[in-house]
Amino acid sequence: RALAQCRGYGKLILFGEHFVVYKVPALVGAVAAYTDCDCEFLEEPGLTVIDERPAVPHYKVKKADEAQEAIQLTLKHLNVDTTKRGVKLTFGGDLCAVSGIGASAAQVVALARAVGRALPLKMSEDEINAAGYEGEKGYHGTPSGIDNTAATFGGVLRFCRTDGAPIFEKKKLREPIRIVYASTGITASTTTVVGDVRAKKEADEAWFAGLLTKYEALLKRGESALDAGDVNALGKCLDENHALCQELTVSCPELDALVDAARSAGAIGAKMSGTGRGGLMIALTPSAAVQDKVKEALSKLAPQVWTTFLA
Ligand code: MEV
Question: For residue range 166-220, what is the model confidence (pLDDT) as tens digits?
């Protein structure tokens, strides 16, 4: 097994979930945890998937059909036909699969890398990302592509969807950002929640345009704070982004409770991250000591809590 090159990273969205679907920029950070994939070709046709990824309870069962579809779409994109040749895939790594962390994108990007290596195919990083995007459609309908781009390239990215290939650039951070992230224990469907937002937007375009304008101004301030290494200003912007998510109706009482608890324990900013209506929240912490305190406070409410850093 040569897994070192066959990884896809998990992600946390700092700014712009849902807005990013409508071709405005967002900021996303890859976490220091990954899914890896091993691909073996066999004589006997058929697909065998061994999924050894760590995951929160029920995640894999809930996502089983989508995972199957995502794997098939990625294989199809790479011209691998499992009715003609056997494919055995083994997924592992240290990323705990949970709604909000981009586990699906990490999985299909790792898969694209592994198939590319096994065939072998010479694929550029952009081609890996494009294959991951095809796989993501199996999980999420027509996603923005932010998750697979973070999974492929890592780091902190400014990402913008376009009608063609996405436009993105890696941000240079002055210092790593210390994050605590916690799960609500609720697995949300991105396709459903994105669809609900679209329906609300179509019913009231003026309402959505108002939120979009506020978001774009907020992103400018958030990105300047990130560039300047001003964690206090960055934290305030995260708080404001959470408020916008509430207005979009993608937060939920469980997320709001975790966000409040993180702030009370000393986080300098907190928000939901990803699809919402369940999934994850993130808290920005200024020091290792505060990170520990926030983790402790969230552990009393959330079924799973992790610490990480974005760099
Ligand atoms: C999911 O990680 C982020 C969303 O904005 C959906 C997408 O970008 O496709 C909710």
Answer: 999 999 999 999 999 999 999 989 999 999 999 999 999 999 999 999 999 999 9
Q: Is the CB of 275 under 6 A from ligand 1?
A: yes
Do 180 and 295 form a contact (C-beta atoms < 8 A)? yes
Shared-domain flag, residues 157 and 186: no
- Name the residue type at position 277: R
Alpha carbon of 102 to ligand 1 centroid (Å): 9
Residues 128-175 have pLDDT tens digits of: 999 999 999 988 878 999 999 999 999 999 999 999 999 999 999 999
User: What number is the ipTM of this complex?
Assistant: 0.99
Cβ contact 126:109 at 8 Å = no
- Is residue 140 located within the same domain as residue 193? no
Whether 1 contacts 193, CB under 8 Å: no
Question: Could you give the number of structural domains in the chain?
Answer: 2
Give the residue whose CA is nearest to atom 9 of ligand 1: 143
- In the chain, which ranges are continuous DSSP H helix? 59-62, 64-77, 103-118, 125-140, 146-153, 190-203, 205-228, 231-247, 253-264, 288-299
For 286, counting Cβ atoms within 10 Å of its Cβ (0-12 exposed, 13-18 middle, 19+ buried), the class is middle
